[in-house]
Structure formats: structure tokens, C-alpha cells
Amino acid sequence: MRRRRRSVDDSDFQDPLKNYETPAYNDDLDRSLMEGEIRDIKITPFTAVLPETTIQEAITEMRDSSIACLLIARDGKLLGIFSVRDVLNRVVDNYDRIMNDPVSDVMTPNPTAVYRTDSPAKALNLMADSGFRHLPILNVDEKVVGILGPRRVTSYLRKFLPD
Amino acid sequence: MSELELRYVITVHRDESVRHCIQQMRSYGLGCVVVVGEKNITVGKFTERLLIPLLLSGESLDVPVAKHMSTDWGTVSTEDPIANVIEQMESKKLRFVIVVNSKGQPVGLTGQKGVAEYIAEHFPRRVKVQESQATKIFLDHREGA
Fold first, then answer.
1. pLDDT in tens, A125-157
2. Domains of chain A, each with CATH number or no CATH
3. Contact A145, A138 (CB under 8 A)
């Protein structure tokens, strides 16, 4: 039995993207916020320690590396974050008593992170609206690849700001 | 600068203790206090970051803040453009910049977070609509060949 070839009627075809509108950007800053990626920003090298590292060792690492924030990780998997704000709020009053306790006792567990391919707008949202100063950066395998602070973001966006 | 929302500035006298500064920073949720001398003129700043060497030195928190404050700070005038704030922070690698009036008296505090908030406020269509959690891209589950 011969099959009859069905003629294609143009009226049957429905373009799924027919209502798609190309984003309109006001300027380069506007465009970079949405179309840029976090990996375009110069990501700060990060320092990570194991959760059983003592508080004293963690603080010494922060001093020696001149950093304000440590990531707590095991085998590349992010477990927590420990910053100078944690030192202010959880450590300084009891330092002599807890200096040999593990840093996992005073870290912020399960911190909010961003992916390398997220937009700068997302990082700004988390920093400006949600108040996160440092954002760990993950790759698609959920491994830590860097850390992002507000200085890097403002430096990146500065070139798009009008003089 | 008039478009930038300034943070409350905590001022402490140079003879106050480090412990007092810590309590002030904690109660206002800020990471910096401005240290002033006579006539309320700025003489330094003390930030949460300075707690690190202080703790490791084993020194008491009851010493005057003048002993541990940083004398390297950035100031901008209330009349300066925002670009000056960014310039100060980048050139001196600062997190905070002190905003002073024409008499040199601190009237506010701003910094990297303030600039980030400024940009977010001016591009609400881009920044405010973002999800508050990170999004994962599922490259291993993508459709197609």
C-alpha cells in the first residue's frame, strides 16, 4: 500500500518562539548584568580548610593569607563558610575557651553559593538584597572553584559605569 | 553621593576599649567603627578584620582602641561622585569609606556593599527579579543529542 505524502500546510506550523522578544538593554552595564557570567569576573583565589581544623588554626590561616573569609570543604564539597563576621559574633568573647574546638562549631553551614555560569545580576542580588558578603562559586559538579566578594563585583561593573 | 544610602556611622573615642567597639559593631550589625579624637575629628578606624591579629596576639580586649586601630582610611565628601568611592576603595583596598562633611566630621559610612546596593537599586528589572538562591544548570540532563 502506498502511503500518500502529506503536504505541509504552512498554517499548521506554530513557531514556539513567535512571542519571544529579544531583550532590550539600556546600556552596557544593563547588558553585562544579564548577559555576563560570574566566570567573567576575576574570581578571588579561595582558601579552604577541613571542618575539623581548630578555630585557632583557621584564624591563623586567615591572618597568614590576608583573607576575610575561609571556606570549609571536604574533597571539594562545600560544607560551610567562616568569615570575620563569625569571629565578631561567635568567637571573640570566648576565644580562649574555644580556640581548640573545630571550626565547624562556629562556621555558617550550607552557605548560599552561585554557579560559574550565573549572571552578575544574581551575585548582586544576593549581596545587595540578601546581604551575603562572600559567595562561594561552584562548578556544575558542585565543587568549589572560587569565591566572590563585593570588591570584585564592583570592580567588574565599574568599567560600565558612566564617569 | 546623595544617591547612595549611607550607613549609620558608629563613632567611638580613641580612649574607649576594644571590647566596647566589639559591642557597638555587634549591636549595629556593622563591621567598622570610626575612631575620633578631640572635636569629633576622625583619627582612625577599627574593623572586624583587625580582630584576627588581636586575638592571635593574646592581648586583652580591654586596651584602648587607639592601640589597635588602623590609621589608613578613606574619606569622601558628601558632594563627591560615586566614582570617587569606588576609586578610594580600589586604590587603598578598603571595604569601608568614611563620608565626612565640610568640617571633616564623619556623617556616614559606605563601602563595597553600598555600591552594590546602589547598582541593584538602579537596575531593579535586572537585579531584584533574581531568585534568591543559586540556580543549577543541568548540563548532564540537557535535551537533544
1. 888 777 888 899 999 899 999 998 877 877 777
2. 37-158 (3.10.580.10)
3. yes
Residue A4: which residues within 8 A CB-CB, separation 6 or more?
none
Conformational region of residue A75, where left means phi above 0, alpha means psi within -120 to 50, and beta covers everything else: left
Closest Cβ opposite residue B51 in set A34, A88, A113:
A88
Query: A63 and chain B: CB distance < 8 Å anywhere?
Result: yes
Mean pLDDT by 10 residues, chain A (163 residues): 62 78 75 78 83 97 93 95 95 95 96 89 82 89 89 75 61
State the pLDDT at residue A75: 93
Neighboring chain A residues of B133 at a CB cutoff of 8 Å: 112
Beta partners for B46?
Answer: B33
DSSP reduced 3-state for A22: coil
Instruction: Cell numbers for B109, please give them.
Output: 559610612
- Torsion angle defined by CA atoms of residues B126, B131, B136 and B137, in that order, rounded to the nearest 10 degrees: -40
Q: A124: helix, coil or strand?
A: helix
A115 touches chain B (CB under 8 A): yes
CATH code assigned to B11-128: 3.10.580.10
Measured between CB atoms, does A88 come within 8 Å of chain B? Answer: yes
DSSP A137: E
- Nearest chain A residue to B5 by CA: give it: A128
Q: Are B33 and B24 in contact (CB under 8 A)?
A: yes
Alpha carbons B30 and B22: distance in angstroms, whole number: 10
* pLDDT tens string B107-127: 888 887 788 788 777 766 666
CA-atom Rg of chain A in angstroms: 23
* H/E element, B42: strand B42-47
The domain ranges of chain B are 11-128
Pair B33, B21: CB distance under 8 Å: yes
Q: Do A63 and B56 touch (CB under 8 A)?
A: yes
Is residue B97 within 8 Å of B88, Cβ to Cβ?
A: yes
